[in-house]
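Bumping with the actual sequence this time:
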Amino acid sequence: MKNIVFCLLLSLMLSSCDKDSSSEYLGNSSGSGVAGSTATILTYKGFIYTVDNNYLRTLSLLDPSHPVEVSSIFLGEGIETIFAYEDHLYLGTRNGIQLYNISNGAKPVFTGNSFHFPARDPVVVDGVLAYSTTNWGSEDGNGGGTLSVISVVNKNNPITINQLNQEYPCGLGLSGDILYVCNARYGLNVYRTNSNGELNFIKNLPTDPVYDCIAYDKLLICQTKSGIWLFNIEDKANPVFVQRINN
Protein backbone atom coordinates (compact mmCIF):
# COMPACT_ATOMS: atom_id res chain seq x y z
CA MET A 1 0.00 0.00 0.00
CA LYS A 2 2.77 2.46 0.88
CA ASN A 3 4.38 2.00 -2.56
CA ILE A 4 1.07 2.79 -4.27
CA VAL A 5 0.63 5.98 -2.24
CA PHE A 6 4.25 6.92 -2.88
CA CYS A 7 3.88 6.46 -6.65
CA LEU A 8 0.60 8.35 -6.72
CA LEU A 9 2.12 11.30 -4.88
CA LEU A 10 5.09 11.35 -7.25
CA SER A 11 2.86 11.07 -10.31
CA LEU A 12 0.74 14.01 -9.17
CA MET A 13 3.85 16.13 -8.73
CA LEU A 14 5.22 15.19 -12.12
CA SER A 15 1.95 15.95 -13.85
CA SER A 16 2.59 19.61 -13.02
CA CYS A 17 6.10 19.57 -14.56
CA ASP A 18 7.03 20.77 -18.02
CA LYS A 19 6.57 17.71 -20.23
CA ASP A 20 9.53 18.74 -22.38
CA SER A 21 11.93 18.84 -19.43
CA SER A 22 15.04 16.69 -19.83
CA SER A 23 14.58 15.53 -16.25
CA GLU A 24 11.04 14.18 -16.77
CA TYR A 25 10.86 11.05 -14.71
CA LEU A 26 8.50 8.43 -13.34
CA GLY A 27 9.58 5.59 -11.09
CA ASN A 28 8.06 3.12 -8.67
CA SER A 29 10.02 4.79 -5.88
CA SER A 30 12.50 7.61 -6.02
CA GLY A 31 15.31 9.39 -4.33
CA SER A 32 16.62 12.63 -5.82
CA GLY A 33 14.31 15.43 -6.84
CA VAL A 34 12.31 13.89 -9.67
CA ALA A 35 14.88 11.19 -10.33
CA GLY A 36 15.28 8.16 -8.17
CA SER A 37 17.73 5.98 -6.35
CA THR A 38 15.59 2.84 -5.99
CA ALA A 39 13.44 3.04 -9.11
CA THR A 40 13.17 0.20 -11.62
CA ILE A 41 11.39 2.20 -14.35
CA LEU A 42 11.72 5.75 -15.65
CA THR A 43 10.87 7.97 -18.60
CA TYR A 44 13.63 10.12 -20.06
CA LYS A 45 13.75 12.21 -23.23
CA GLY A 46 11.01 10.34 -25.03
CA PHE A 47 11.82 6.80 -23.91
CA ILE A 48 10.88 4.41 -21.11
CA TYR A 49 13.78 2.53 -19.53
CA THR A 50 13.14 -0.35 -17.19
CA VAL A 51 15.16 -3.06 -15.47
CA ASP A 52 13.72 -6.39 -14.34
CA ASN A 53 16.67 -8.14 -12.65
CA ASN A 54 18.00 -9.61 -15.92
CA TYR A 55 17.25 -7.11 -18.70
CA LEU A 56 17.46 -3.43 -19.54
CA ARG A 57 14.49 -2.71 -21.81
CA THR A 58 13.88 0.46 -23.84
CA LEU A 59 10.48 1.55 -25.12
CA SER A 60 9.84 4.47 -27.48
CA LEU A 61 7.24 7.06 -26.50
CA LEU A 62 6.97 8.51 -30.01
CA ASP A 63 3.29 7.62 -29.64
CA PRO A 64 2.79 7.92 -25.85
CA SER A 65 -0.46 5.97 -25.97
CA HIS A 66 1.29 3.02 -27.63
CA PRO A 67 4.87 2.53 -26.31
CA VAL A 68 6.96 0.27 -28.53
CA GLU A 69 9.92 -1.79 -27.32
CA VAL A 70 12.98 -0.81 -29.37
CA SER A 71 15.75 -2.67 -27.52
CA SER A 72 16.30 -5.33 -24.89
CA ILE A 73 19.74 -5.94 -23.39
CA PHE A 74 20.49 -9.01 -21.32
CA LEU A 75 22.48 -7.95 -18.25
CA GLY A 76 22.55 -11.07 -16.11
CA GLU A 77 21.11 -11.39 -12.63
CA GLY A 78 21.18 -8.76 -9.91
CA ILE A 79 20.09 -5.54 -11.67
CA GLU A 80 18.04 -3.66 -9.07
CA THR A 81 17.79 0.09 -9.71
CA ILE A 82 17.98 2.64 -12.52
CA PHE A 83 18.83 6.36 -12.56
CA ALA A 84 19.15 8.76 -15.51
CA TYR A 85 21.46 11.78 -15.59
CA GLU A 86 22.38 13.76 -18.67
CA ASP A 87 23.23 11.20 -21.38
CA HIS A 88 23.77 8.17 -19.16
CA LEU A 89 21.84 5.53 -17.28
CA TYR A 90 23.27 4.40 -13.95
CA LEU A 91 22.17 0.88 -13.04
CA GLY A 92 22.50 -0.21 -9.43
CA THR A 93 23.33 -3.90 -9.17
CA ARG A 94 24.23 -6.34 -6.42
CA ASN A 95 27.86 -6.07 -7.50
CA GLY A 96 28.23 -2.37 -8.30
CA ILE A 97 27.12 0.32 -10.74
CA GLN A 98 26.88 -0.10 -14.51
CA LEU A 99 26.85 2.91 -16.86
CA TYR A 100 25.10 3.03 -20.24
CA ASN A 101 25.33 5.89 -22.73
CA ILE A 102 21.92 6.92 -24.09
CA SER A 103 22.97 9.64 -26.54
CA ASN A 104 21.04 7.47 -28.98
CA GLY A 105 18.06 6.95 -26.69
CA ALA A 106 16.83 3.86 -28.49
CA LYS A 107 20.13 1.99 -28.16
CA PRO A 108 21.83 2.17 -24.72
CA VAL A 109 25.55 1.43 -25.00
CA PHE A 110 27.62 0.06 -22.10
CA THR A 111 30.45 2.40 -21.07
CA GLY A 112 31.81 1.21 -17.72
CA ASN A 113 31.20 -0.11 -14.23
CA SER A 114 32.26 0.24 -10.62
CA PHE A 115 32.44 -2.99 -8.60
CA HIS A 116 31.85 -3.80 -4.93
CA PHE A 117 31.10 -6.96 -2.98
CA PRO A 118 27.51 -8.22 -3.38
CA ALA A 119 24.99 -5.85 -1.75
CA ARG A 120 22.02 -3.70 -2.73
CA ASP A 121 23.12 -0.58 -4.58
CA PRO A 122 20.81 2.44 -5.09
CA VAL A 123 22.50 5.41 -6.78
CA VAL A 124 21.93 9.12 -7.51
CA VAL A 125 24.12 11.42 -9.59
CA ASP A 126 24.95 15.12 -9.65
CA GLY A 127 27.57 16.50 -12.00
CA VAL A 128 30.65 14.28 -12.04
CA LEU A 129 29.87 12.59 -8.73
CA ALA A 130 27.58 9.64 -8.00
CA TYR A 131 26.38 8.74 -4.51
CA SER A 132 25.55 5.15 -3.72
CA THR A 133 24.55 3.07 -0.70
CA THR A 134 25.05 -0.63 -0.08
CA ASN A 135 23.52 -2.66 2.71
CA TRP A 136 23.64 -6.26 3.83
CA GLY A 137 22.13 -8.47 6.50
CA SER A 138 19.03 -7.08 8.19
CA GLU A 139 18.17 -3.78 9.80
CA ASP A 140 17.38 -5.32 13.19
CA GLY A 141 21.00 -5.03 14.27
CA ASN A 142 22.53 -7.84 12.23
CA GLY A 143 23.22 -5.71 9.17
CA GLY A 144 25.37 -2.84 8.05
CA GLY A 145 26.22 -0.74 5.05
CA THR A 146 28.24 1.98 3.39
CA LEU A 147 27.72 5.31 1.67
CA SER A 148 30.08 5.79 -1.29
CA VAL A 149 31.05 8.75 -3.43
CA ILE A 150 32.06 7.73 -6.95
CA SER A 151 33.80 9.91 -9.52
CA VAL A 152 32.15 9.49 -12.92
CA VAL A 153 34.37 11.96 -14.76
CA ASN A 154 35.56 9.00 -16.82
CA LYS A 155 32.41 7.10 -17.70
CA ASN A 156 34.54 4.13 -18.78
CA ASN A 157 36.17 3.86 -15.37
CA PRO A 158 34.08 5.10 -12.41
CA ILE A 159 36.23 5.34 -9.27
CA THR A 160 35.16 5.30 -5.61
CA ILE A 161 36.80 8.33 -3.97
CA ASN A 162 35.13 8.34 -0.54
CA GLN A 163 33.25 5.90 1.64
CA LEU A 164 31.53 6.11 5.01
CA ASN A 165 29.98 3.42 7.19
CA GLN A 166 26.23 3.60 7.75
CA GLU A 167 23.90 1.62 10.00
CA TYR A 168 21.58 0.25 7.28
CA PRO A 169 21.39 2.66 4.31
CA CYS A 170 18.66 2.32 1.71
CA GLY A 171 17.50 4.99 -0.77
CA LEU A 172 19.03 8.45 -0.95
CA GLY A 173 18.33 11.85 -2.47
CA LEU A 174 20.01 15.16 -3.33
CA SER A 175 18.95 18.78 -3.10
CA GLY A 176 21.74 21.13 -4.11
CA ASP A 177 24.77 20.27 -1.99
CA ILE A 178 22.72 18.41 0.63
CA LEU A 179 22.51 14.62 0.57
CA TYR A 180 19.77 12.71 2.42
CA VAL A 181 20.42 9.05 3.29
CA CYS A 182 17.52 6.85 4.37
CA ASN A 183 18.87 4.60 7.10
CA ALA A 184 15.89 2.33 7.80
CA ARG A 185 15.07 2.21 11.54
CA TYR A 186 18.05 4.45 12.28
CA GLY A 187 16.39 7.47 10.66
CA LEU A 188 17.51 9.99 8.06
CA ASN A 189 21.14 11.09 7.85
CA VAL A 190 21.86 14.55 6.39
CA TYR A 191 25.22 15.42 4.81
CA ARG A 192 26.74 18.40 3.06
CA THR A 193 28.65 17.48 -0.10
CA ASN A 194 31.35 19.26 -2.08
CA SER A 195 33.09 18.91 -5.44
CA ASN A 196 36.00 17.02 -3.85
CA GLY A 197 33.75 14.15 -2.81
CA GLU A 198 33.88 15.02 0.89
CA LEU A 199 30.83 14.33 3.07
CA ASN A 200 30.25 16.45 6.16
CA PHE A 201 27.68 15.03 8.58
CA ILE A 202 25.06 17.58 9.65
CA LYS A 203 22.47 15.65 11.62
CA ASN A 204 20.35 12.56 12.03
CA LEU A 205 16.56 12.89 12.01
CA PRO A 206 14.74 10.16 13.96
CA THR A 207 11.85 8.77 11.89
CA ASP A 208 9.84 5.63 11.49
CA PRO A 209 11.91 3.10 9.51
CA VAL A 210 12.65 5.07 6.32
CA TYR A 211 13.56 3.46 3.01
CA ASP A 212 13.46 6.09 0.27
CA CYS A 213 13.03 9.81 -0.33
CA ILE A 214 12.38 12.43 -2.99
CA ALA A 215 13.85 15.92 -2.71
CA TYR A 216 11.38 17.94 -4.76
CA ASP A 217 11.66 21.73 -4.73
CA LYS A 218 11.14 22.71 -1.06
CA LEU A 219 9.73 19.36 -0.02
CA LEU A 220 11.42 16.13 1.10
CA ILE A 221 9.06 13.19 0.67
CA CYS A 222 10.08 10.10 2.63
CA GLN A 223 8.76 6.58 2.24
CA THR A 224 8.60 4.96 5.68
CA LYS A 225 7.23 1.76 7.13
CA SER A 226 4.18 3.62 8.46
CA GLY A 227 3.49 5.78 5.40
CA ILE A 228 4.74 8.99 3.77
CA TRP A 229 6.53 11.60 5.88
CA LEU A 230 6.83 15.13 4.49
CA PHE A 231 9.56 17.62 5.47
CA ASN A 232 9.98 21.26 4.51
CA ILE A 233 13.51 21.74 3.11
CA GLU A 234 13.46 25.45 2.36
CA ASP A 235 16.54 25.32 4.57
CA LYS A 236 17.95 22.20 2.90
CA ALA A 237 20.31 21.30 5.72
CA ASN A 238 17.57 21.46 8.34
CA PRO A 239 14.45 19.51 7.27
CA VAL A 240 11.35 20.45 9.28
CA PHE A 241 8.62 17.84 9.70
CA VAL A 242 5.33 18.92 8.07
CA GLN A 243 2.93 15.97 8.12
CA ARG A 244 2.47 12.24 7.84
CA ILE A 245 0.28 10.31 5.41
CA ASN A 246 -0.38 6.96 7.07
CA ASN A 247 -0.62 3.69 5.16
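The C-alpha coordinates above came from a reply further down the thread. The two ends are 6 Å apart (CA to CA).
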